[in-house]
Every structure is written in structure tokens, then in C-alpha cells.
Amino acid sequence: MTALTLTPIETAAGRGAIELAGIQKRYADGTVAVDGINLRIASGTYCCLLGPSGCGKTTMLRMIAGHETPTDGEILIDGGNVVGLTPRQRGTAMMFQSYALFPHLSVRDNVAFTLRVRGIGKTERYKEADRVIEQVQLTELAQRLPAQLSGGQQQRVALARAIITRPRVLLLDEPLSALDEFLRLQMRSELRELQRQLGITFIHVTHTQLEAVAVADQVVVMDRGHVVQSDPARTVYAEPRSAYVARFMGGQNVLSGKLESVKDGLATLRGDGGQTFMLHLRGAAHSGHPRLSFSVRRDHVRLTKAAAGSAPPVNAVSGIVRAVEYQGTFVKVTLRVDGSQDKDDLFVAYVEEGDYFASPIGVADRACAAWDTEEVHALAAE
Amino acid sequence: MASTSLSAGRRNWTFYALGAIFIAYVVFLYGPMLCIYILSFQGPQGGLAFPMRGVSLHWFRQLLGQGDTGDLMGALSRSVPLALIVMALTVLISLSAGMAFRSRFPGSGLLFYLVIASLVAPGYVLSIGIGLMFQLLGFDTNWYTSALGAQLSWTLPFGLLIMFAIFGRFSRSYEEAARDLGANQFQTMWLIVVPILLPGMIAVALFGFTLSYDEFARTLQTTGPTNTVPIEIWSMTQNVTSPSLYALGTLTTALSFVVIGTALGAIAIIQRRRLGSLTGRG
Amino acid sequence: MAASVAMTGTPAVRMARLKSFALVLPLALILLVFVVAPLVFVLAVSVFRYDNFEVIPAFTLENYESVLQSHLTLSLYGSMLKLAAITWACTLLIGFSVAGFLVFHVRNRLTAIGLFLLCTVPFWTSNVIRMISWLPLLGKQGVINQALLATGLIHAPLHILLFSDFSVVISYVHLFTIFMIVPIFNSMSRIDRSLFEAALDAGASRWHTLLFVVLPLTKSGIVLGSIFVVTLVMGDFYVVKVMSGGSDASVVSAMYDDISTLLFPHAAASAAVLMIILTIMVAAILRFVDVRKELASHR
Questions:
Q1: How do the domains of chain A map onto residue ranges?
Q2: Mean pLDDT, residues C118-129 taken together
Q3: Quick check: helix, strand or coil at residue C122?
């Protein structure tokens, strides 16, 4: 299968800009799914709502789609409040998690459904449907029923059905979760390409970090009904705002220590195992809190063998190697840090394949992981 | 707000319209029956319609005293055992056929359509057919032979359709797991399949009993010289014009309600126990 | 034939088939003896001669001639088809509304099951009793006439309420609507709710959703219910006999009268004609749906 190609449509500037103001969703039983969310998504953005299950991301999406009504707050699309409007009036289209293809309608009739309920005649709507079906490369399957299609083909039908009316916002609820690994990677890039061609806003709900950073311009990380960070993909990954985001995004070691002194914006921390950590305080990160957290990327760590009983130098932790996993381009080495209270408090280093096998470190060996002060990223207190 | 109420959201007018139809239907369903239950307690001077002229058990005494009516106790002494036999056979035969129907076998389509034919064929035509067959082959028709068969031709299709619904939700992996853990066929059946399917089997039993106990058209030409309860009722509708008729209706429906209540209660207890043991162990 | 098929294939396949055959054997035997054989006997007797209330096994088509040439037959079928059509329309309307209410509007599953059972319970009680329970309501001194007189809407009791086509249809609807509710309820329960959101998302109105999504997806349930209701009405004799007050007759009640006067071959011929007509009707309805898939939809 080749990538989807779609003819770009006339996309006036300012189409599909979304603003959420104080959105809250409280259910009758008292549970709060979404709690006071403020968020801006610029028009033509590929935005991912990311978070663990139950964080409120799907509820957010459904409120933007008009399938759920917020208890409080406003949803603005291109400046107009759409709360209370039908999906059609909003100019949004949704791609459902399990696609929600009508089982009794052929591919063609599924895609043409929107036009049918708008009272457009058979010839005209089939012409338009066939055009979109061709664009998603399903022309030979146009007469089939959904049950006769593979998962990937069903997804293309759902996509065609959603975009046939040229919405200004396309909402995708876990669009890739029903596909196998190979198709997932392929569809991921096709979705990104489709968004670029259409030039409209995509909002894509997922719980997979790699999926989000791979496709999105803007990644919105959510936790228990709140937005904890909304930034470009690279920023969220490289500069997580909080320990929660750092841990959730992965690829980071989160450490903390007691603040000992500050000199010229350079702070010295004392770790729980007696280690000394240095970090640059930038702006609000230091708020007089006696305890500071920071993150160090797993791939920005130097790992060396260490002698028993030796104290680690500044900006380093030492411990016993618990696991070594070969990952192809690098080797994942997991340490249990000396002096840490929490048994699950592990430190992970990604060692480049060549470096690792030049001086391999085995399970149960003692090792020391060190980093430069420049690699340290201060986290907001939680 | 538009129209998501098919799934969620605020109530809209369709809810109230359909709700009104539903309530009207329930009143339509139960109202007339309630009328005859009340009228069966009519005073001795009362008639077939309202108003009530006093309240008494006169018509029940009349009914049981075999005054102007036939042999009700005799009919009951046949109808109840017959219903119990039909119930047991319906459960066993539909369970076994339901298991076979989980996979296609040669002739399964034909047999399935035969089941449907048996369900939709006019009961009285089958009744005539069975009666003629017994007569021409030189057998006597009797409640425990020809009528039993005639009633099974009515209860089995229901039993089988319910079994289809039950097996539709029953995963074969339970059986495979049991076999895997060393259970033989009978242990698998007795320790795994039957307990899991028990609520459904009680439902089949309920259908077996009540459909037999109330069966009329198919029994009419097959019961032989002695009557079952519905046929007793039928002959009363032809020649009794007193509230005794209603009294009989009340009595026989009360028996049906006891059976329905027992069955539904048993199903509810089993389901609650399963739910309870689930939540209990977290 | 089935047995010879069982002999082909690998031993394991043969074994599985034999097991299946053994499991369905009781069902198959009962249906053969108490459904197929009796119908064969009906066909046989329908071509027998009868004289002086005596059935004589000699071939004749007289019975069919007498059934098919009788004006009575035609008018019986005419009136039964009319009753069946009216009953079908009423039960469909009520059945669809009640099932729709239970499936789509009652949010609590337990409540829905409870209300569904409420509709089902009368089905487990005697049809004859349920039928005669209309007598005290519809009669000349019945509840409805008394109520209408009391409100002054009418000045003399309505006679049309009882012992008329009206009371016959009322009884049919009362007895048979459950046969429409259950299959429609089943099909509706299987509809994925996200389809409604997808329809809404596409801009469909409530009416569109009903027409383009709900109706097509409940078609099989409607068809199944229709088969039940139509065949039940066409095969009825006791409702017509009692509720029309003897003024009306049905195809089967005519058979009942034949049997009472021991005209077995004539009744058998009439039964054969009815079975053929019902088979054609059901086959015509079945063109719309695969019942086996609908009823035995397990994987």
C-alpha cells in the first residue's frame, strides 16, 4: 500500500482554531472527568491528547465533537462558541475508536452517508463518494460491506467517511489502537501526511507516547482531568515540565535531592544516597522549595564500572546492575541506585551499542552513571 | 440540544412518547387479566360483568365441587405431571441439540428449518395430523403419548432458540480448559458446562413447563378421552356462563405465576451469587 | 444420506460428526415423528375418500375440489388475510415502540430486563384465559361501555366492541405482540451505540437515524416477528370462535367444525392447502433475511 494522497482543499486561514475555556465535565454520580481545562490549538495543527486511560482525554475529544456536553466552560471553534451545537453545525468530524462503520451499508454508502442525510441525490453523492474512496485507495472494495474488510481497510473507510464533508476539525479517537504494529506505523505517517494535505486541525487521542511525539505538532499531556503540559512534541519529550510528564513520556531518569546551596543560579543538591547533584536553576523552577526534582535523559549518561565502596563523583549515581537489555542500536542498562528507599527506584542508562560491547557491564556488577550539569533539566515541584 | 438521546444526554420527546406507549401496552396487557381475577371473587348473585355483587369464594367452591363443570381435579392431575415431563425432556433435548448446533454438521440447515417449521406450523393442523396418524396406525391417543409428543413439537423449538442465545455467549475455551486440566467428557459437562449454563437451563425449563401446561391447540386432538386443564377451560368457554370460568382462570394463572416466580427467583439468586462472589473477592 | 456423509473424512472428523449426530438425534426423532410424519398423514388422508362418516383409503381429489371450489374457502382466506394484516400492523407498531423504549431509552440495564420480563410474563400464562379476560371489558355491560356511557360520549352501549372483528383483533394483538417484541428487542440490543454518534456526526437527524440506521439493522427482527404473528393469526381458530361470538370463522375453525363432524379428509385437504399457502407466505417473507444467521448467530 502506498501513502494516502488527497487533493488539498481551499483552507482559509483561521479554519479549525480551537480554544477551550474552563471546560469541566462532571457526571451525575459526582465523578469529574475533566476539571477546568484551558487550551488553545492553532488552526491547521496536528494535536495529540496524550495520557493514561481515565485521564479525561477521550471525554475532552467527545465534548469538542459534540457527543458530550460540558458541565461548565466554553468551546470555541474559529472564535464561535459551539457548546450546544450539533456536530454538523460545528464543522467537526469524528473517527471513532472501533470506526462505527454501519454494518449494513457498503463502503460506498458508508462514505456517502453524510451526503445522503443532507438530501443530496444518488448520482451526485456517489460521484463525490467515489472520489474520496479513490483517494483512500479503496475503489475496488467500494461495494463490499465493512465486515468483509481488513482492519486497515476499515480504518480508511472511516477516514473517508469523516473527511468527505471537508470538516475544519477532524477528531480521531485512538485511531490506531485496533491495528497491528506494522499497520500502525504505516497509518501513523499516512495520517500525518493527510493532515498536511488537508491543512485542517487534527485532534488525535492516544495513550502511546511514541505515537504522539511521532505525529503531533502539539502534544497535550493530561493527568486526572487536567492538562499538565501542552507544548511542541520535542519540548514535551526533552523538557518535561514535571516529574509526572518526565516519567510518563519515558526516556528520562527522574531524580531528586535536598537543596544545599545556590550560587550564581547553580544549585547544589544532596541525594538520598549521599550523592551530590548540580543543576542550573532557570526562572520559576526554584521556588524556595527545600527539595528539587530534575530529569536526566537516559541516552545522555556515561556508564562505567565502579569499584565496591567507592563514593560517586558529582553528578553521578552508582549501584548494582539489575538488568541488561539489548535493543539493537543501544543497550538498556538498569541500575538499582545505592541508598534509595524505594525498591522500584531504578536508574536507566542507554549505552550506545559499540561503547557497551567495548567494555561490557554485566548483571550484578557495580556501575556508576554520570552526566554533565548541562544535561540536567530542572522539574517543577509537584 | 440535538438528538444524541439514543445513547445519552437529556430526555427528549421520544422518550416520553415511547414511554407512554410502553405504559399503555402494559396496562393493555395486564388490565383485562386483573378484571377477571377480581370478578372471580364475585358474590353468589353476581354475573360475568361488573359491578361486583359482594365478595365471596362462591365460584371457586362451585368450580371445585364439580357442579356445572367437568373434572377439573382430574385435568390437573394430568396437566401437572405432563408439564413436568415435558419440562425435563425439553431441557435435556435442547441442551444436547444446542451443543451439537454449535458447529455445522451435515443436515444441520435442514434440521434448523424443521425446527422453525414446527414452531410456525398451525398447532391445530399438527394436532389433526398426530391424531390421524395414531388412529390410522391403530394406537390410542393419550396424554402421555400423543399429547406429550405434540407438546414437545411446540416446546422444543423455544428451548433450542434459547439454547442458541445461551451458547452464543458461552465460550468454548471453558470446555477446552477443563479437558486440558484432565476432566473427561462427563466431568466437563457436569462440573463446567451445566453450572455455567444453569440460569439459561432454568429459563428453558420455565418455557417447557408453562408452554406445556397452557398448551391448547396441539393437545386438542391428541389427548384422547381425558382432558388437560386448557381443554377443560375451552369446554367451559363453550358452555359455562358463570363466574366459575373466571375462578378457573384465576386458579390456573396463580399456578402459572408460582412457577414463573420460582424460576425467575432461582435465576436471580444464581446471578446474584455469581456477582457477589465476584465482588467479594475483588 | 447423513450417515454416509459421516463416514467420510479423517477419523477425528468422523468422530466429531458422529457426536453431533448423537446429540441431535432425540430432537430429530421427535420432530420426525410428531411434525413430519403427521403432516405426511394429513397429506395422505386429504386424498382419501369418505362416506357416511367413514374414511376409506381410496385415492380421490374430491376433497381438494370441494375445498378449492367453495366460495367459503375464498372468503375465509380473505377475512383471515385482512385480520392478519391489521394485527401485523398493530403488533409491529407496538412491538417496535416497546422494544425501542426498552433498548434505547431505559438506561439502567437491570430496569430494562425487569420491564422486558413484565412484558413477557403473560406469555407464560394461558392464552384461552387471557382471551376470555376481554369479555367483562368489551361486553354490552362491560367496563368500557359503562365508562363511555358515564362520560356521556355515547348514549347507548356500543355493540361493536364485543363479538366483532374488533374484539378478535384486540385479542390477537393482546396475545401475539410479544412475538414481535422479542425478536425486535434482540436485533436492537445488538446495535452498536457508537453508530448513533457516527450518524449524528454525519449530520443525520433523529428521523434519518431511525430510517437509515435503526430500521435496516432491526429488519431481521421485524421479519422474524412478522412470520410469527402472521402464522399465528392464520393458524388460529379459538380466538375467532369465541371472540367473534360465532359470527366469524377462520380457515382452521372451519377445519375444527369438519373434525367435529368427522369429515377428516375434507379437513385434511383444507389443512394441506393452508400449509402450502403459509409456506409460500413465509418463503416470501424469508427472502428478506437469513433467519438462521439471525437466530443462531453464534460464532
A1: 18-238, 254-379
A2: 90
A3: helix
The answer as to CATH 2.40.50.100 being correct for domain A254-379 is yes
* pLDDT confidence band for B180 (50 / 70 / 90): confident
B2 CB within 8 Å of a chain C CB: yes
b/e A271-294 (16+ beta carbons within 10 angstroms → b) = bbbebbbebbbeeebbeeeeebbb
B278 touches chain A (CB under 8 A): no
Residue B157 belongs to a domain with what CATH number? 1.10.3720.10
CA distance A16 to B282: 46
Residue C92 pairs in a beta bridge with none
pLDDT at residue B210, as a whole number: 93
SS3 A264: coil
Kind and range of the H or E run holding A258? strand A252-263
Total Cβ atoms within 10 A of residue C134: 25
Q: Cβ(A364)–Cβ(A225) under 8 Å? A: no
ipTM: 0.88
Neighbours of C128 (CB within 10 A): 26
What pLDDT, in 10s, does the model give residues B54-79? 888 888 888 877 555 567 888 889 99
Task: Indicate if the pLDDT at residue C53 is higher than 70.
Answer: no
Mean pLDDT of A114-124: 90
Chain A residue whose CA is closest to B6: A67
Cα B31 to Cα A171, B37, C36, C122: the distances in Å are: 51, 10, 40, 11
Question: pLDDT tens digits for B110-149?
Answer: 999 899 999 989 999 999 999 999 988 989 988 999 999 9
Helix axes C165-189, C109-120, angle to 10 degrees: 150
Q: What are phi and psi of C298, to 5 degrees?
A: -105, 155
> Which residue on chain B is closest to C20 by alpha carbon?
B100
Identify the CATH class of A18-238: alpha beta
Domains and CATH numbers, chain C: 67-295 (1.10.3720.10)
H or E element: which one contains B160?
helix B146-168
Provide the number of structural domains found in chain B.
Answer: 1
Query: Is residue B276 included in any domain, yes or no?
Result: no
Q: Assess contact for B123 and B154: CB atoms under 8 A.
A: yes
Q: Is B63 inside a domain boundary?
A: no
* Residue B233 is assigned to a structural domain of this protein: yes
Dist CA A242 CA A216 (whole Å): 20
Tell me whether residue A121 is exposed, middle or buried, using C-beta atoms within 10 angstroms of its C-beta: 0 to 12, 13 to 18, 19 or more: exposed
Please give the grid coordinates belonging to residue B30. 395486564
Query: Is residue B194 domain-resident?
Result: yes
Q: How far is A96 from chain C (nearest CA, A)?
A: 8
The whole-number pLDDT of residue B86 equals 97
At C166-221, the pLDDT tens digits run: 999 999 999 999 999 999 999 999 999 999 999 999 989 889 999 999 999 999 89
Selected for mutation to probe chain B from A58, A86, A89, A90 (highest B CB count within 10 Å) is A86
SS3 of residue A114 by DSSP: helix
Smallest CA-to-CA distance from C30 within B167, A204, B155, B269 is with B155
Q: For C25, name the nearest residue in chain B, comparing CA atoms only.
A: B97
Q: How far A81 CA lies from chain B's nearest CA (Å)?
A: 14
Q: How many CB pairs under 8 A join A and C?
A: 64
Domain ranges, residue B120? 70-239
Collect all residues with Cβ–Cβ distance below 8 Å to A86 and sequence separation of at least 6.
Answer: A66, B2, B3, C200, C203
Q: What is the pLDDT of residues A51-72, one digit of tens each?
A: 998 899 999 999 999 888 899 9
